[in-house]
Backbone:
């Protein structure tokens, strides 16, 4: 009897252990399933991650100087990013160098120190400072005429590579020369006014001079080092020229009143490289929309930040269209008549 009772108790204990083992296994299986599901959910969330409220991205904006064209490019850039990512998804650290290239370097170093996610370099000097300041943070340039010249790249093929890309404000220079010829076919001497500290200004006047000399004009370059000698150099140019050409030069753009106060009384018209300069001191221009250029740059930034594009493989983008524009006030004052296909610049 005792043996039978012992056997029965042993069987009961065995069944209990089996039941406990089954319960533990089931619990382990459920836990593993939950862990796997959580991991899958995390992976999915990582793949589709969008910027969270409060600002997931910090973008440093270094603008060389404040004037109409560069301001418009910066605004277009910001608007495009906010439209794509949302206002709470990005923080803009916007700083202006007030025309000083050394200040550009200081600003860029600050962006590097704060580990910005992307840098917008608005104008050539800002781009050059950014190139020198970091090889890691993505850099987008805008309002830069020719990247090969600005960055010292020989045989530039349209893609900078590394951590730099952007947009160009280069208008067809031969067509700008053709505009001068269209409006002033009887002129003889053309002055080319530009800041020698701006590499892309030098590039533009060199190219326009070639085109104009091919049309029979006599050209002379009038370079000034900064705004301090702008007045004296402009006075000389106005005395010796029938018409003056000014490229997309930031120093002139920031000082159009000085140029206009000399050239208008002297009766010397100016063909300008962009709308802002034309509005301040020119009679006509073949220009782009700098706001639209900024928007294009902003769209590039979104692709970089979201991982949709690799900046090292992104070619420089150019303005899609150009418009013949004229300044009604100065044209009337100087007796300049423009063809019907020119658009008046709004005052």
Residues:
């Amino acid at each position: 009897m005792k043996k039978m009772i012992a056997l029965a108790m042993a069987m009961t204990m065995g069944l209990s252990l089996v039941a406990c083992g089954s319960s533990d296994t089931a619990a382990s299986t459920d836990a593993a399933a939950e862990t796997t599901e959580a991991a899958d959910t995390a992976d999915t969330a990582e793949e589709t991650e969008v910027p969270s409220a409060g600002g997931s991205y910090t973008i440093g904006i270094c603008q060389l100087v404040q004037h109409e064209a560069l301001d418009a490019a910066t605004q277009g850039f910001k608007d495009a990013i906010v439209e794509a990512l949302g206002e709470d998804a990005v923080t803009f650290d916007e700083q202006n160098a007030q025309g000083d290239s050394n200040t550009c370097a200081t600003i860029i170093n600050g962006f590097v120190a704060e580990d910005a996610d992307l840098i917008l370099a608005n104008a050539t000097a800002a781009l050059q400072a950014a190139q020198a300041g970091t090889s890691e943070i993505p850099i987008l340039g805008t309002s830069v005429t020719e990247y090969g010249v600005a960055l010292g790249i020989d045989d530039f093929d349209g893609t900078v590579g590394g951590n730099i890309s952007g947009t160009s404000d280069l208008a067809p220079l031969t067509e700008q020369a053709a505009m001068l010829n269209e409006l002033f076919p009887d002129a003889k001497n053309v002055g080319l006014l530009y800041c020698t500290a701006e590499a892309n200004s030098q590039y533009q006047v060199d190219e326009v001079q070639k085109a104009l000399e091919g049309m029979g004009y006599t050209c002379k370059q009038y370079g000034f080092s900064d705004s301090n000698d702008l007045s004296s150099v402009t006075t000389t140019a106005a005395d010796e020229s029938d018409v003056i050409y000014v490229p997309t030069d930031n120093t002139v753009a920031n000082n159009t009143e000085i140029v206009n106060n000399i050239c208008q009384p002297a009766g010397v018209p100016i063909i300008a490289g962009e709308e802002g300069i034309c509005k301040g001191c020119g009679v006509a221009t073949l220009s782009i929309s700098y706001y639209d250029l900024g928007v294009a740059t902003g769209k590039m930034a979104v692709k970089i930040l979201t991982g949709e594009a690799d900046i090292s493989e992104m070619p420089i983008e150019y303005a899609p269209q150009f418009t013949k524009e004229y300044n009604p006030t100065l044209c009337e004052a100087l007796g300049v008549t423009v063809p019907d296909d020119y658009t008046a610049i709004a005052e």
